[in-house]
Amino acid sequence: MSDIGNGDLDQSGGAEPGVSRRRILSTTALLLTGSATSSAAGAAPTKVAANPARDFDAVASLDERIANLRIGGEMTLGVETDAGVIHVAATAKQLGLSCPADMDDLLQNGRGPELAALVREAKSKPKSVKMVAPSDLQFAPLVTRPEKIVCVGFNYRKHAEETNTPVPKAPPLFAKYNNALNHHNGRIKLPTEADTWFDYETELVIVFAKPCKNVSEAEALDYVAGYATGNDFSARGLQNITSQFTAGKTADGFAPIGPWLATRKRVPDPNKLKIKTLVNGEVRQDWTTEDMIYNCRRLISYASRCMTLKPGDVMYTGTPQGVIWGQKTPIDQRRWLRAGDIVTSSLEGLGDLTVTLD
């Protein structure tokens, strides 16, 4: 990597014609400000029920879509059914059962058996089920207290091509932080004091069910609780002002995930899903997870050799071609995302994730 001012900069830290680092320096601030507000709930760690039947595989065996909801100012779980969304906490109270408080409690404390028991009981006693009224259905970030938000860069061949990036020798890993977590129908306050080149990246998100360390590719998916739709929202100037991505990736609200966790049982092959982005109703990305350079098994196996992945951790797996950064028009003539834009990210079978920009 050459010094700032010598050469041009693309999304990977490599060359893109016509984009000097001095131009990026002159149009973006070096540091993110704290003006934006976080969309994630600042919840305290959940207390675990006495002697729960801990089973970190139970969630993955459910054939449901599960949501993290915010109802009446409190977090709770919702389970999708043909009749509507089960209010887990209210139904548990009605049936005299214990239940996890939210998605983090469910995953991190291995409380899948309690949720599975509630779902079974609800199906056998439908009159005892409490449903969430459609008008009260407010999604929270899918997780709010993960230990790690792991992200992968340049993991689609066409995306690497559009940004003139060589195929990586290994999955390029970087991180977001919990302040970035956001939710379906959430809002992102753009940090315009620091950047103006805002971009979308619709991605498949892996949600982990149990501790994962040094696992083989063959067994990698056995550690997955399920999958979700995500948007690796990015400030491209901050991302590319140095060789490190973090500044442009983890502003407040820059990691929307949701609305649903589709359990592993519902997704036989995460690398055979359609993936799409719409901006103000216009299709921008429309591809398939089959184009990943490193498939989900390889990503999990590789990351698990670098660190221990914990229950409730999440992994963004990369985005396909079609991002604004990959366009061929001069960078300062592109129509970057701005306040008022509505971005919808979609993964086949996982649901649509929409955010509005402020």
Residue share in helix: 10-25%
How many strands, what sense, and barrel or not for the largest sheet?
9 strands, mixed
Strand adjacency order, main sheet:
3-2-1-13-10-9-16-4-5
CATH superfamily of the largest domain: Fumarylacetoacetase-like, C-terminal domain
Overall number of strands: 18
In one word, what is the shape? Answer: globular
User: What share of the residues does DSSP label as strand, in percent?
Assistant: 15-25%
The number of helical elements comes to 8
Number of domains: 2
Residue-averaged pLDDT, rounded?
Answer: 88
Can you describe what's shown?
It is built from eight helices and 18 strands. 51% of the residues are buried. The radius of gyration is 20 Å and the shape is globular. It folds into two domains: 58-136, no CATH class; 144-357, Fumarylacetoacetase-like, C-terminal domain (Fumarylacetoacetate hydrolase, domain 2, Alpha-Beta Complex). The protein has 358 residues and is of the alpha+beta class. It has helices at 21-27, 58-61, 88-95, 103-108, 112-124, 157-162, 236-240, 296-306, and strands spanning 65-71, 74-81, 84-87, 149-152, 173-176, 181-182, 186-188, 198-199, 202-208, 224-231, 234-235, 255-256, 261-263, 274-279, 282-288, 314-316, 342-347, 351-357. It has a nine-stranded mixed β-sheet with strand order 3-2-1-13-10-9-16-4-5. It has a five-stranded mixed β-sheet with strand order 7-18-17-14-15, with no helix packed on it. It has a two-stranded parallel ribbon with strand order 6-12.
